[in-house]
Amino acid sequence: MIFRSIVTAKIGFHINVHVVQEERKDIIMRIDAHAHGMHAELKDGRRIPPLMSPWKETIVTPEEHIRQHNALGIEKVLLLDPPEITFELKRVFGDFVISCPQVEMDKSSPEEIAAILDRGACGIKFIAPMHPYGDDRYLPLYEVIRDYRALAVFHTGYLAHEFFDPGGVLPRPNWIDISDMRPSEIDRINRAFPDLKILMAHFGNPWWEEAWTMLKSNKNIYADLSGGTAYEKSMGMWKDLFAPNGKLNTNVVSKLCYGADSWMFHAGHFDYQRLMEFYDNLYDELRLPDEIRLKIDRENILMLTGRKNQ
Prior knowledge:
CATH class: Alpha Beta
Order of helices and strands: EEEEEHEHEEHEHEHEHEHHEEHH
Number of strands: 14
Strand order of the largest sheet: 8-9-10-11-12-13
Number of domains: 1
Shape: globular
Low-confidence stretches: 1-25
CATH topology: TIM Barrel
Helix content: 25-40%
CATH superfamily: Metal-dependent hydrolases
C-alpha cells in the first residue's frame, strides 16, 4: 500500500502486531476521531459489570504504547468512553488522549455536562437515548455544549446489543430504538443551535443518504465512517454518494473525519488497520487531493476539538 500525505513521521523501529507487515518509513499521521478503551469481563458470552480501564502496565509502558500507535500512523485519539474511564486514560496517556466522554443523556443535567467540560473535556458524546435526539428534553444539554463552544458527538444509526441493552454493562432502562438516532434527528438540533459543532459517528448506518444530506445542508455538521459496516460497503456505493456521476462533491467529502471505532488501550492490540486501508482506498477511488485528505485525516477533528493550532 502506498501512503500519501504532506504530514508524515519518520519511524525507525519495528513493532509487533497481530499481522506480519513491512516496516514503514513514511506514515500518515492521523487523529482518530472515534476511539474507545473501556473494558468489561466476559461471562457466559456476555460482558458483565463493572466497566473498567483496560490498561495494565505489564507488557509495555504508556510511552511505548503511544510509540507503537505512532508507528502505525495514529498521533492522537478522541476518546469517547464514560467520564471515569476517559479521564483515567487521559491521566495515564497525556496528550495522546483528547477527552470527549460519553454520558447517559436521560440521566444527565446541564450542570453535569458543564462539570465534565470544566474538567478539560473538549466535548460530550451522546449515545443510546430513550427518546429521539431532537426531543425538547435534551435541548438544555446541547445548549451548554454550545455555550462552551465545545463539540457534540452523536452516535448515529445502528447500535450493537452488547453494552446498552437492559442488563448490559451500560444498561438503559428499556430497549433502545435505533430510529431515535437517525441522522435526520440531528437536523432539528442544528436548527435550534446552528453554531453547535456536531460530529455524527458512523455516518448514520444504514441511513447513509440522510447523513449525506446533513453534511451538505449544515455547515457545522461533520461525520466519520467508523465502525464495522461502512468499510464493508462497496466502493461503488461510496463513489456514487460522494462523487455522483463522476463529479466530486468537495463540500460533503471535505467534512469527513478519520475514525476507526477501535479499542486503543489494550496492549499489543492494533485492529484498526483495516479501517486505514478503507479510508486510503476511498481517497484513491475518489482521487482526493492532498488538502482534502489532510482535512479528513487530522485537520477537521483538530478544528472541532479546538486544537487546530496545537
